[in-house]
Amino acid sequence: MNNDFNSTPEQSGIYQGFDPVEPAGKKKNTYALVSLILGIVSVASCCLCCCISYFAILVMLVCGVLAIVFAILSKKESKDKKLSGKALAGLILGIVGIVLVVIFAIVMIASVALIGSMSNEELLAFLEETFKPLMTEEEYAEFIAQIESALESAE
After folding, report:
1. What is the pLDDT of residues 102-127, one digit of tens each?
2. 112: part of which helix (H) or strand (E)?
3. Which of 20, 30, 84, 107 is the most exposed place for a label (fewest CB within 10 A)?
């Protein structure tokens, strides 16, 4: 080994045996990682359903389906044709996201059907029971006035 300070690393042998390229047997499976990320987004967007319901449900559905698709692509890309841990987690989270979409859709449809079948008096009693404890008297009076005007215009 040459200890000359003016020599290049290749000449001095410092980088001897160092290969910065990843070994051929350790190929990264990006489909598995994408599947995992989309699965997490699918389930995590469940928290948004209260605030932005239709958009969040659409995000949950699209990300859930894509998580499943990428998990399947990951399995096809792997040498042993097995799901890696990331792909399996993405697959499970994607399925959970789709199941949550179905549950939220059923709840939304049932809510609309329930409210649609109520008479105006029943609806106002339901709204009073639900929202009056959460609002001040002025806010509640304004809210009920808006609801009553909407009900009158709908008749």
Report:
1. 888 888 888 878 777 878 788 888 88
2. helix 85-117
3. 20
**Largest pairwise CA distance in the chain:** 96
For residue 41, count other CB atoms closer than 10 A to its CB: 19
Are 12 and 1 in contact, with CB atoms under 8 Å apart?
yes
Q: What's the domain count of the chain?
A: 2
**CA distance readout (Å), 129 to 19, 23, 67, 122:** 71, 66, 41, 11
Torsion of CA 64, 65, 68, 69, to 10 degrees: -140
Q: Within a domain: residue 65?
A: yes
Q: What are phi and psi of 15, to 5 degrees?
A: -90, 15
Same domain? For 57 and 122 the reply is no
Question: Which tokens in the block code for residue 85?
Answer: 């841990």
pLDDT beyond 80 at 9: no
Q: Residue 40 belongs to what domain range? A: 28-108
Structure tokens at 66: 């894509």
